[in-house]
Amino acid sequence: MSVTTNLFEMALPTRIVFGAGALERLAKLPMPGKKTLLVTTSGGSLVRSGLLDRVKTHFALRGVEVVLFNRVFPNPTDTLVMEAAALARREGVDFVTGLGGGSALDVAKAIAMMATNEGDVWDYVRGGTGGGKSPANPSLPTILIPTTAGTGSEADPWIVLGKLETDEKIAFGNRGTYPTISVVDPELTLTVPPFYTAAQGFDAFCHATEGYLNRRASVVSDLFALEAVRLLGNSLAQAVENGDDLAARSDVSLAATLAGVNESLAGCISLHALEHALSAKNPALTHGKGLAMLAFAYFERLVDKAASPERFVSLARALGYPSAVAPADFLMALDRLLAGCGLKNLSWREEGFTKEDFPSLIANARSAMGALFRCDPEELSDEDLLEILERSWRD
Fold first, then answer.
1. Residues 233/319, Cβ–Cβ less than 8 Å
2. Rounded CA gap, 333 and 238, in Å?
3. Which pLDDT tens digit goes with each residue over 350-379?
């Protein structure tokens, strides 16, 4: 069956400034306010590199006062957002800036929403134990400056948060959580270590691939998805091998942003739901690594079910196999990508999982992000999911 429809809706309100050296444009862009909450990670790399001071200087040149919140950690939680939103209200900031990886960007978007709305952020989460409410008030404007290439958060409205009490990790968002301005400078990714370059880039690959296979895919989303896959096939392994290669880094950053646009137009399928169950159970698990642990068996199962064979062929060609004629060619290309990035045969046991966890992981994926299963090109039963987990397992 074809999963592509020519009925689509496109509203991308974010101003994206992209390219090597783009950060220098920050001081020349129209500021959405005079006081910003600058949201960063809890590590010291932004200080050591001088990037934090560079951003502060750009804001100072525009007369913007900066309030720093530097407590973001990987796989952030609802309580962190509420703490920062309270700070934003106390300080009277009129916009929020996210500087860092996807967690910092997502938290910035969530803070911007909760600085102007009542209740708890989990009240606005759709899925799982979330309240499913719609915000009564517009979010504060946001400026996002990614220092990694993977999540695409700079180009979409999605926010990924965890709730430790219930072992949930859920993506949510609305039209008000699109960034106002995103400054995407590939030079900021040059110091990302090889493993994180690989894991983050593979996240972007999954965004693009899942969007292309999504039942909501359209002629427009396909353009972004296939170009993101092509760029990653050309350059991700090179960026992992040689982090100083700015051309490769630029390709990967562009792919991540294009895949983020694709997420806005089509979205992910149940591979992301499964991975969120893994990193909800083990918040220390890097999201892209979790996806790599699952991806080959997941897509192999879709191929086995004869799901969208012509689209798998198109993906294989985009990924560097121009003579591809069968869905199995995509699996060959995927295997090469995983091996080239050092993401093949990753151990589950080293991440603290046992096979006894499989039923609870499946139940969590269904409960927390069940909507993604409705976007799959073919229905995946619990038996299918169990087989995927079994095929994925590596000691």
1. yes
2. 16
3. 999 999 999 999 999 999 999 999 999 999
Secondary element (H or E) of residue 98: strand 95-100
122-180: per-residue pLDDT in tens? 999 999 999 999 999 999 999 999 999 999 999 999 999 999 999 999 999 999 999 99
Helix (H) or strand (E) holding 307: none
Quick count: other Cβ atoms within 10 Å of Cβ 388? Answer: 25
Q: What is the spatial distance between Cα 106 and Cα 164, in angstroms, rounded to a whole number?
A: 17
Do 19 and 186 touch, CB atoms closer than 8 A? yes
* pLDDT band for position 11 (cuts 50, 70, 90): confident
Maximal C-alpha separation, the chain: 60
3-class state of residue 216 by DSSP: coil
Q: Which residue from 80, 70, 75 is spatially nearest to 103, judged by alpha carbons?
A: 75
Evaluate whether 173 touches 109 at the Cβ level (below 8 Å): yes
CA 80, CA 73: separation in Å to the nearest integer?
A: 9
DSSP string over 234-303? HHHHHHHH-TT-HHHHHHHHHHHHHHHHHHHHT---HHHHHHHHHHHH-TTS-HHHHHHHHHHHHHHHHH
Q: 6 falls in which pLDDT band (50, 70, 90)? A: low
Q: How far apart are CA 99 and CA 135, in angstroms?
A: 24
- Span 304-327, pLDDT tens digits: 998 899 999 999 999 999 999 999
How far apart CA 363 and CA 382 sit, in angstroms, is: 9
